[in-house]
Amino acid sequence: MYFYLLDTFLQNKKYEREITRIETRITDLGIGGQVARLNILKDINELVHDAVKRGVSTIVAIGDDYTIGKIIDVVARYEVVLGIIPMGDRCTIARILGIPQGEAACEGLSRRITEHIDLGVANGFYFIGGIETSNTDVVLESENGYRIVPLPTAQRVAITNIALWDEASQKSQKPHPQDGIVEITVLGKRKKQKFSLAKRQNSMIIEPKEYEDVSIIPISHMKLESAPGSSVTVIIDGKRVIKPPIEISVAPGKLKVIVGKERSL
Amino acid sequence: MALFRHDHSQQEEDTIETVIGPSVKVEGDFMSRGNIIVEGHVNGSVKTTRNLRIGENAVIQANVEAENAIIAGTVEGNIAIVNNLEVLSSARVSGDVTTGRLTIQDGAYFSGNCKMKTDENKKINEETQKDENDQ
Question: What's the distance, CA A97 to chain centroid?
């Protein structure tokens, strides 16, 4: 049984025709199910809990990376499979999992090839992409007895589970969601840009190619703390805001997800 | 970008796992089983069973252990390398060195003792390392 979660931004008229096509396609393929539209009044936990009680075994997120970020902490707590129908501009997670955009994703849902992927855990909350802060007054302590201290030139600190940036430019330093580790990424000086880039609020997409100075340190368990006297907030998957101290670890193979043929896992 | 030159393959470039950039300082004993590039600061020790590259602006106040290493920056500490150590002209090394093969470029600063590993020592080291890996 399938349960579809449609993100709020899909209420925009420009997505109307594509949503209709998706509804038709999933009915044709015999994978129809109840559809719920996410909004601030609906509790995702309650929606998923009720669906699982009714016997739903597959939760399908229709939306972008942020949609997955919104639901991942809830979905990971149940014995369900996650399906994705990517819609919108930021669908990097789906691309890595080999899932084509929009209606084309329905075939893959029906084919149902699954993989187990790692999730990160931050103070008990699951995350798929990463956590980050632009306040770099933090100290990261590894369980193996060393500390990572960003220097004043550092601009952003992130802990990433899955490569959410252009794979081609960072070929050798690509976090892989099946390796049992997350990667600390510290971004220093930005590359000079001809045009200033629009600042993204609560971004879950870090793009090291925009920076001259990138540190990448793989790790499986760590503690993130604020430097004395500073107030730091950390954003999980571009959605949830928490404050240090934060215990960060990896839940290997925690999420069972439907993938496509073109996956780069 | 040639990270590890000479007999190091393209494949090794693709398996770089750790980059300590200029905006980061690492304090304590840093250990890895993959390739490491250091462009920042390290206080403590750095150990890897693979390759290590210490960039021109890197400052390492630590003992260093690796299979192969290229040093272009500053190292204050003892260096133990299983196979090849290459000290580039921009490097400043203060500490004792133990290595299988050594290249020092013209202009490099090196202050310390140097001990070359014999084939027999190498064999013992390799066997010890193999035993450690098996455990």
Answer: 12
The residue to which tokens 């003792």 are assigned: B113
Contact criterion met (CB < 8 Å) for B26 and A151: no
| Residue type, position A131, single letter | I
A228: Cβ contacts below 8 Å, ≥ 6 apart: none
Evaluate whether ipTM surpasses 0.85: no
pTM: 0.82
Q: Do A97 and A91 meet the contact criterion of CB atoms below 8 Å apart? A: no
Q: What is the pLDDT of residues A210-225, one digit of tens each?
A: 567 889 999 899 999 9
Q: Are A100 and A85 in contact (CB under 8 A)?
A: no
Contact in structure between B13 and B3 (CB atoms under 8 Å):
yes
* Cβ pair B8, B25 in contact under 8 A: no
The sign of the dihedral angle between the CA atoms of A14, A68, A262, A205 is positive
B13, B14, B24, B41: best mutation site toward chain A, by most A Cβ within 10 Å? B24
pLDDT in tens, A43-102: 888 999 999 999 999 999 999 998 999 999 999 999 999 999 999 988 888 988 999 999
**A256: exposed, middle or buried (C-beta count within 10 Å: 0-12, 13-18, 19+)?**
middle
Interchain pair A186, B24: CB under 8 A:
yes
Show the domains of chain A with their CATH numbers. 2-111 (3.40.50.10330), 125-252 (2.60.200.40)
